[in-house]
Design goal:
Layout: E1 2-7, H1 15-26, E2 32-35, H2 54-65, E3 68-72, H3 82-91, E4 102-108, H4 116-128, E5 132-133, E6 141-143, E7 150-151, E8 156-157, H5 160-178
Parallel strand pairs: 1-2, 1-3, 3-4, 4-5, 4-6
Antiparallel strand pairs: 7-8
Length: 179
């Protein structure tokens, strides 16, 4: 299976990127996960949506070819970061590559609440795009108090309870994709 991960943070050492890298490595035998480069995506411009820039065409192509999409995002000002929203605006237009595509959300924050507000907003955005969302009940990957759950040197999550929970959600996501 092939999947693509959209990370809502451009910072290379962000906890959300570390979660993406952990998942890419941990599940490589089950799914080939590619982390998209959202930094290359220009600001959305409706004047260009019929003939989008190369970076947008590339992202849309990767999503089109993927069996599933994972979106891992921080929470900025109680919502979705601009870089992620911008990418979603591009991919929601014209050929609408997320329509019907299985999507799973996750997020990491240094606060106690994880990314609950951002993910709630993200689910609304994705529903409007007709993405096929993994049902939330029991599948909410909301990692809070991140500093104690990651190893900065290896850039991986090391909290065993969190890893076991993520493993269970990922297994349910695989079943959801096949359904």
């Amino acid at each position: 299976m092939k999947g693509i991960i959209l990370v809502g943070s451009l910072r290379q050492s962000s906890y959300n990127r570390m979660l993406a890298e952990t998942m890419r490595e941990r599940y490589r035998a089950r799914m080939n996960l590619d982390i998209a480069d959202l930094q290359a995506i220009p600001m959305y411009n409706q004047d260009e949506e019929q003939d989008p820039p190369a970076a947008v065409r590339d992202l849309k192509g990767k999503i089109r070819e993927a069996d599933a999409v994972l979106i891992i995002t921080p929470e900025y000002n109680w919502s979705v970061p601009g870089v992620l929203k911008n990418a979603l605006d591009w991919i929601s237009r014209v050929d609408k590559v997320l329509a019907g595509k299985p999507v799973m959300t996750a997020g990491v924050s240094t606060g106690q609440m994880g990314t609950i507000r951002a993910q709630l907003h993200l689910r609304d955005i994705l529903a409007s795009m007709r993405a096929r969302l993994l049902p939330p009940s029991g599948n909410e990957i909301l990692i809070g108090s991140a500093a104690g759950k990651f190893d900065e040197a290896s850039r991986r999550i090391t909290d065993e309870a969190a890893l076991q929970f993520i493993d269970g959600v990922f297994e349910r996501f695989l079943a959801f994709i096949r359904a």
